[in-house]
Amino acid sequence: MNSSPNGKLIVQFLLTVVFFGMGIWFLRHEKAELSDVKTALVTAHWFWVVAGLLVTIAYLILQGLLYVTCFHAIGTRVRLIDTINLFLKRNFISVFLPAGGVSSLAFFTGRIESKGISKNQIHYASSIYAFIGIVSVIVVAIPAFVIAFMEGKTGSAEITELLVLIGITILIGVLLVSLYKKGRIYSLLIRRFPAVEATIEDILQLNISSGRLLLTLVVSIFIEFAGIAHVFIAMKALNADPSMMAAVMAYIISVVFLIISPFLRGLGAVEVSMSIILVRFGFSNVTALSVTLLYRFFEFWLPLFAGIISFVSKINKLLMRTIPALAILLLGLINIISAITPAIHWRIETLKEYIMLDAIHASNFFVLIAGFFLLVTAAFMMKGLRSAWWMALLLSIVSLVGHITKAIDYEEASVAFIIIILLLFTRKEYYVKNNPRLRNLGLQTALISAAVIFIYGTVGFYLLHQKHFNGDLSIADSIRYTFANYFLIGSNELVPMDKFGHDFILSINAGGLLSIAFLVYCLVLPYVYKENASEEDIAKAKVLLGKHGKSALDYFKILPDKLIFFPEGIEAFIAYRVTGNYAVVLENPVAANENDAIKCAKQFDRYCYENGLKSIYYRVPVESLGIFSGCGKKNMFIGQEAVVNLDKFSLEGTSRKSIRNAINKIRDKGYRVQIHQPPVKDGILQKIKSVSDEWLELTERKEIIFSQGSFEWKELKGQTIITVENSEEKVIAFLNVIPDYAPNEGTYDLLRKTADAPNGIMDFILIELINYLKSNGIHYLNLGFAPLSGLNEGQTIKDKSIRFAYEKIRALAQYKGLREYKDKFEPVWQNRYLVYDNDYDLIQVPVVLSRVIQK
Predict the structure, then answer these.
(1) How far apart are CA 164 and CA 63, in angstroms?
(2) How do residues 326-370 score in pLDDT, each as one tens digit?
(3) pLDDT given for residue 184 in this prediction
């Protein structure tokens, strides 16, 4: 299994931890002023608050209008009400998706499709929407940065942001020019992802009016103005001295952090960055934070709430996951705000009669910790992880108890109680397993690291207090301060006297943050699948192949690169590989009959469902499509397989003249064929290994797997090898005969030659293979798969795209040549299909397939 998806998830998680770390640091730094912030927000001028609400309404209308103009730019029309609804839903789900602003653009196309607009057109318009959104930020940002620089109101951080935006502008410009002119970037892109060439060609052929595109940009710029207006109105509402330049700069910087944020739409990072910018423009810490929070209410929380309303008309699985995710996100924020703001005095005094003061402080700590954990957990709830649900439930219970025992905060406790009920009600929506190995590793690492840090901190505080900290510290004090700093709480009573003391506390903070973050990551990471099947699985699958195998691809199903699924109560199995969220199955289930195959496929779909995977079946024969029709799956033609009838094949006739001539010339040069039966001698294997290596270098290819084999010494030793040698016994070409489970059929896998092999050597060795198979009573030869070939003119966009790719894309010319070469043997062409769940999966297929064939 390719590890890059997990690596990407790790990077996104670490970035999220960094952003939350920024938020934690900021809250601790501003802790003394948060009470004033709360007062400022409560006393905000309601006239301007209402004005902000009206701007939010205009903002939502403009977002819908931007979609309308994007669709209009590609020659289609949509209703404004539909596009507003589309924005609200995508904006809502983007909070819970990795790279949410981009990822969400693939969702909620159904309502627009029902108006007669194709999914491809929706994706094209959405791409324009995303691109124009970035361009409009740049258009507004550059003059603002220039003016601020001339007025001396920018520092190194702002200049860095400007350089980033300029870099983005240049990068986008170069990319677009290269795509339009089919330059180097275009070539690199189609070389890495050949399937996108058809899509790019379709986009370039669209009649996009420059005037309509300009209108789209104008609408997007107005959206930026609405955001700036929100910042300015927040200043007015809080009786701050408003500054348009400060509003512009704060908004632009916050949008940059919003764009690069991997999770939760910049939560934490936006608040910190905007507050810092406002402070640099002369606002006090209290005013800067108050303005930021009110701005986020207008720009983030109100649209998010409107997104919830947009879902109410249709309860679906997505809603059943997103509502709890949003709820625990809100509970996390409530916990943090409640823990860091002063408690009501009479409640604390009443509580002291029943609970010790240290226990009250501990409850406050745990509420704060639970708040931060809830924020992280919210991002993983959308994945349907069972472990994330358990963590959310546990943290909600901790919050419920903590709010009561820290200050009798029954209001916050009531929210926690409602969320517990909500989690219990939606428990069945969280079924995806996590990785037990990593879970145990995370627990062990967290416990060990916590023990080490507590010993380190306790001993350090006790031994160093006289020189580096104020006051005398007992063992109990040292343990308490270590505990507080491990969980990033800190203490106003402990004051470092020098840099060493400050760094010592910082080291405990860093150790605690890293160990806790690693624990949370291990607990919520989806199940990581083993890369290969066990020897026991392969042995069991071989037995089933002997009984029920019926395909030329069956041999590849038991190679070590596959995972094997065995259903319960059925003699059957499925061979597959996992990459990202997809389980790619090679061809059909191996089963005794179609009924067993259907049952196997349904059990495998259930298995995928429980593990958060989507199944894709690759190279399914046309006669097997009925297996999947009952599962509600779709299919797409992807090419044909060539099968030669050896009883009818002959070298006679004018159509075979080129083959006869090639064979005669090769024989006249003294080349001869050798057939090596298993076990093949090591000397022969060494010779063909040299041929294989030379062929890979000559063709600039790498070994690929999944639906074909690679050069594996152990496998080849047990197979029949046909070689072509010169008079000096140098092997110049070879092929290996592999097991073919189709009745009366034979096939081969590797067919490779040296650079100095004469023309026609492939024809020569294939004819020898045909003779060998005939001598062993085999009636058919499977020549293998020719991708994309054999498609007649289709009516659907996907059929036309495949046809276009096959006929026009240079990178796929090898497939056309492959079809023409195999046609020389006059085979019968058999259709093969890709079976999948929904059309969105087709966007992922090229990348998914490229990953599963990598060795």
Answers:
(1) 25
(2) 888 889 888 888 887 777 778 888 888 888 877 787 788 788 878
(3) 75
| Angle of the 410-425 helix axis to the 317-340 helix axis, nearest 10 | 160
Backbone CA torsion sign across 92, 97, 98, 103: negative
Averaged pLDDT, 429-452: 70
Amino acid making up residue 240? A
Residue 149, helix vs strand vs coil: helix
Min mean pLDDT across 288-292, 401-405, 622-626, 809-813 is at 809-813
**Residue 445 burial (10 A CB sphere; 0-12, 13-18, 19+):** middle
| Cα 660-663-665 angle, rounded to 5 deg | 110
- CA 604/CA 628 separation, integer angstroms: 12
Interstrand relation of 572-579 and 582-586 (parallel, antiparallel or unpaired): antiparallel
> Residue 387's closest CA among 373, 366, 408?
373
Higher pLDDT, 77 or 197: 77
Pair 239, 45: CB distance under 8 Å: yes
CA distance 303 to 310: 10
Q: What are residue 808's phi and psi, to 5 degrees?
A: -115, -30
User: How far, in Å, CA of 236 to CA of 38, rounded?
Assistant: 17
**Which residues are 276's β-sheet partners?**
none
108 three-class SS = coil
Average pLDDT on 18-33 reads 49
Backbone angles phi, psi at 733, to 5 degrees: -160, 155
Lowest average pLDDT, out of 301-310, 801-810, 834-843, goes to: 801-810
123 C-beta neighbours (distance < 10 Å), count: 18
Q: Quick one: the chain helix, strand, coil %, rounded to 5?
A: 65, 10, 25
Amino acid letter, 789 = S
Pairing between strand 731-738 and 720-725?
antiparallel
Q: Is the peptide bond before 436 cis (omega within 30 degrees of 0)?
A: no
Integer-rounded Cα Rg, in Å, for the chain is 33
